[in-house]
UniProtKB/TrEMBL annotation:
Keyword Ubl conjugation annotated: no
Record's keyword annotation contains Protease: yes
GO molecular function: peptidase activity
Listed transmembrane segments: 41-67, 79-97, 103-124, 136-165
Record Pfam families: AgrB
GO biological process: proteolysis; quorum sensing
Coiled-coil intervals: none
Name this protein carries in UniProt: Accessory gene regulator B
SMART domains: AgrB
Species of provenance: Paenibacillus terrae
GO CC terms, sorted: membrane
Keyword field: Cell membrane, Hydrolase, Membrane, Protease, Quorum sensing, Transmembrane, Transmembrane helix
Length: 182
């Protein structure tokens, strides 16, 4: 769905400017990423509002997006599946409550995963000069939640920590390969 929409938009842009320097494939890739981001924010906001957990859902999404920026993680083979999975996770998280011992166990496990595996981008990216600080940023975000003791942030960090464990191989490469084959 999102892939088809981004391809349609990219094709229309190329028709309007056939001599433009950007190929349809590159535009489609960039548009797909942006459409996924905006659609996720929209659907999480809407579903969070409908379930009565608007701010909790946005907090889950915001913390997930923030930590994912620095920690990396596996990708789904479909942008549409990514949209629906992220929406489901972020809207479900505010419904959970936990005691302090459960909070501490999950937080410490997430912290250890980020300490060992972050950043784990699975695919080749051109590393910036600040890339070496990404692990420190991830650990700092986890440690900051020990002070705020937010169960929503704790569960968002746990979901993201699970996605950087290097057991997820294949889908992220297939997704990149699919974009290159267009």
């Amino acid at each position: 769905m999102l892939e088809a929409l981004s391809r349609h938009i990219a094709t229309e842009i190329k028709k309007a400017d056939p001599d433009g320097p950007t190929s349809i494939e590159v535009m489609e890739y960039a548009l797909g990423i942006r459409l996924t981001e905006f659609s996720t924010i929209f659907f999480v906001s809407l579903t969070g509002w409908l379930t009565g957990h608007f701010f909790g859902s946005l907090l889950a999404l915001g913390s997930l997006m923030l930590i994912r920026k620095f920690s990396g993680g596996a990708h789904f083979s479909s942008l549409t599946f990514c949209l629906f999975f992220t929406t489901a996770v972020c809207v479900t998280i505010p419904f959970f409550s936990m005691g302090i011992s459960t909070f501490l166990i999950i937080s410490v496990c997430s912290l250890l995963v980020f300490f060992v595996y972050a950043p784990n981008h699975f695919i080749y990216i051109e590393k910036s000069a600040n890339h070496k600080y990404f692990k420190i940023i991830c650990i700092s975000i986890c440690m900051l939640n020990f002070f705020t003791q937010s169960t929503i942030i704790c569960l968002s960090l746990a979901v993201q920590a699970f996605s950087i464990i290097p057991i997820w191989r294949g889908g992220e490469r297939k997704w990149i390969r699919d974009w290159r084959e267009l």
